[in-house]
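For the sake of transparency, this paper describes our internal protein records without simplification. The remainder of this section carries one protein's record, kept here as part of the documentation:
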Amino acid sequence: MNNAIESRIELLAESLAKHGIERFDLAVVLGSGLGAFASSLAEPRVVSYEEIDGMPRSTITGHAGRFVLGEIGATRVLVQQGRAHLYEGWNAHDATRAVRAFAKLGCRGVVLTNAAGGLRREWAPGTLVRITDHLNMQGRSAILARERSSGRIYGEAFGAALERGAQDAAVALQRGIYCGLLGPSYETPAEIRMLAGLGADLVGMSTVAEAGAARAAGMQVAGISLVTNLAAGISPTKLDHHEVLAAGEAAAGRITELLRAAVPHLAAATKT
């Protein structure tokens, strides 16, 4: 089984390189409605997922389904606009194939972003949060049998580099623990109370498998959640995906400023 998984990773890495997607220092995976950062890259090279062999595609609105390779200063950055979710029918190895291919191509650091529900009442929609740890409640793991995980996925130095970028850009960045659930349904108020009791500050349907696989593949990992809505039982309104996309659009400028300012710090952190 592992041989088949690794063959698919190799196929994807070779196809990316064939299309000129190679020799990049950092990768950024953009979640629902968060695609604006890609347009800020200099000398962009854009490749649709449809052109790439072995790349799982998302069917969810707000995921453009393309790679954008470009530069921020002296750093080459690859942006993945859209991810495959487990609730779309992909398994954990499918959903993490891209980040593993990045590692195959020599990438040493990845920033994973997502849209999340907030479990803290003081975090209004639009709040940006650095993920310091996560709870994997998806019932799935992307770790291969030959791999061992230390349990420490989000590196402190890499996360600190993200925070230095936030300070440089004068963008507020909180800290919190993300909980990944399988989806596709939103959580019930009772589930939200349970998750809060377990220590979660944020909840969503992505990221945890990618983070674990990227770290196991040898990359530094950082994460940013955009609070798009207060979770069920906290929010007075009905939750829907349009709210998620609207919050992403409203926060696009701040996320772009934060990431652009953080890139030099992140690139330096991968070399230490």
Observations:
- The chain has one domain: 2-269.
- Residues 169 and 257 are 6 Å apart (CA to CA).
